[in-house]
Amino acid sequence: MILALALLGLAVVNLVSTPRGRSRSAGGEAAEQGPSHDHGKPGKIPDVEEFGPKDAPIEIVAYYPRPSADAESTLTLLRRLVAEYDPHLRVKAVNIATRKGRREAQGPGLPEDGLTVNGRRDFARVVSGNLRKIEFSEAVYPTGSRWREADLRALINLELRHQHLYAKKYEQELESLKTGQTYSVGNPQSKVRVKAYYPMPEQCVDVTFKVLKEVAEEYKDRVYFEFIDTVSDDGFTEWCDAHTLCHGILIDGKQEYEVTVNGETKKVTFFAPLDTEWTRAELEAALNAELAAVGQ
To answer: What is the pLDDT of residues 26-56, one digit of tens each?
Structure first.
């Protein structure tokens, strides 16, 4: 009985003293136990995922930890581009959240998440009349901030030209991204002018734009509204030059206003989507104050 209790106590001590993430080998030594990557199970994300023709002349290698917002927003774009550029484009998605993925990313010496196009991590292109250096690190805009769909299309098209595979339809799609969905509404002669800078194709600003359009319709005889698509080349350039706080709204060049709503006066900065940092009532209060100031 005493011997049995002693053996039981020894087993408990042995179990408690084994560090987490390590297991006992047959000989009693602690053995390193890495993360399990059983990709045969449903729902498992592989170390490396490939899509598109294997012999495609353009190869994009995307290095992102999965699952993550950066990975999913970028891979959603890449899957769409593979379909559009078929059979000229293939994608290899490397999951750098796994050991194998991290080892593969060490080859090109990537300092952070990002992608390469036929081995290239950056290039220069003219955007709205200015030469810009584009680096494909982080995720696609607006999840990331360093590159946009138009930048990636421009480099793909350049690579296709070098290989004499240029197609006019690819250039037409890129051309449409120069202005995007930017448009204006209201009285062009008005002294009160509103500029709203947002990535218009993104679902996260759908409600914001629905309300902004309603406000523009309400004030169209007295205010001039410009809805600037920051996904586009021209819109992105104008947004950068405007130096706004995040995506947001300028009323006669100002983003911060003191407004009174329901008897309460407060300072409001019109940035981010609706009902995060500002409300419709606060926007209308700012417009009414500006109209009163100019005598309209």
So the answer is: 333 333 333 333 333 446 899 999 999 999 9
Give domain 180-294's CATH superfamily: Glutaredoxin (3.40.30.10)
Return the structure tokens found at 146.
């360093």
How far is residue 174's CA from residue 167's CA, in Å, rounded to a whole number?
A: 12
Contact 292, 257 (CB under 8 A): no
Q: Which of 1, 5, 3, 21 is nearest to 13 (CA)?
A: 5
Is the Cβ–Cβ distance between 250 and 195 less than 8 Å? yes
Give Cα 9 to chain centroid, integer Å. Answer: 55
The pLDDT value recorded for residue 173 is 77
**pTM of structure:** 0.73
- In CATH, the architecture of 48-178 is 3-Layer(aba) Sandwich (3.40)
